[in-house]
Structures are given as C-alpha cells and as structure tokens.
Amino acid sequence: MSDKVRLEGVVFYGFHGVSKSEQELGQRFVVDLEVERDLGVAGCSDDINDTVSYVDLYKLVKEIMEGPSRHLLENIAETIAQRILDLHQVESVRIEIKKPEVPIKGSVLDHASVEILRRKQK
User: Fold this and answer.
1) How far apart are CA 30 and CA 65, in angstroms?
2) Domains along the chain?
3) Would the N or C end of the chain have less CB density within 10 A of its end CB?
4) pLDDT of residue 54
5) For 45, what's the count of Cα atoms within 13 Å in the CB-facing half-sphere?
6) Which residue out of 99, 105, 120, 122 is catalytically annotated?
7) Amino acid 1: pLDDT
8) CA 72 to CA 17: how far, in whole Å?
C-alpha cells in the first residue's frame, strides 16, 4: 500500500513525563501521524466517506495528547495507534511524538522522540 493520509508537525500542550515538574508545568509536544489506506475510491468518488478524515484523526490525537498525564511517550503513541486502528478503516498507523523541551540538565538537542508503526491484524 502506498496511499497515505498525513498530519505533520501538529503541536499540542500536555502534561506528560516521568518527572513531577513535567506533569505539573506541562510542555509542547509535536506529533507526526501517517495512516495507510487505499485512496483510489475516494479519488474517484470525491466522497469523504471513502477516505479517512484528517479532521477526525486530529481530534483523536488531540484528545489523547491534551488528556490525562502519562509517563511515557511510548504509551501515548501506542494508545493513539490502537485507537486509530480500532476506529478507522486503515491498514497501518505510523506515529512520531517529539518532545522539544527535554528536561535533561545541560542538554542541547532539538528534541527527543519515539516513533512506532502498527499494522491492522488480519
């Protein structure tokens, strides 16, 4: 499958992290999301019901990113991926979550991130 719907560079403010300060003060997170789905029918029909709505994907990610605090980016990514696979007709989900303000003393880095790829079980 090579057809994809993407959301890239979506910024959320959340209260995720292992440290108490991350959970209390919060920080920015940047999400890149990609789902695979055959877009041929939608390309011909011009009907939103024949694709996956990026608005629906955005709302799902927003709910989790801005929802209750979680310790690990891995847990957030897995939750998002599984919800998308359960709720939408997609073949796979790739999600990367970046943490630009990494709380590592003396660190100079652009961001820390996790990326996962999950496929629908047949």
Assistant:
1) 10
2) 4-119 (3.30.1130.10)
3) C
4) 95
5) 10
6) 99
7) 61
8) 6
Quote the CA–CA distance of 17 and 27 in Å, as a whole number: 9
CB of 4 within 8 A of CB of 36? yes
Q: What is the pLDDT of residue 104?
A: 75
Q: What is the pLDDT of residues 42-68, one digit of tens each?
A: 999 999 999 999 999 999 999 999 999
Question: Is the whole-model pTM more than 0.70?
Answer: yes
Q: What is the pLDDT of residue 12?
A: 98
Cross-strand bridge partners of residue 10: 31
Q: Which residues, in sequence order, are bridge partners of residue 34?
A: 6, 94
Active site residue 105: no
Q: Round to whole Å and give the CA distance between 16 and 65.
A: 8
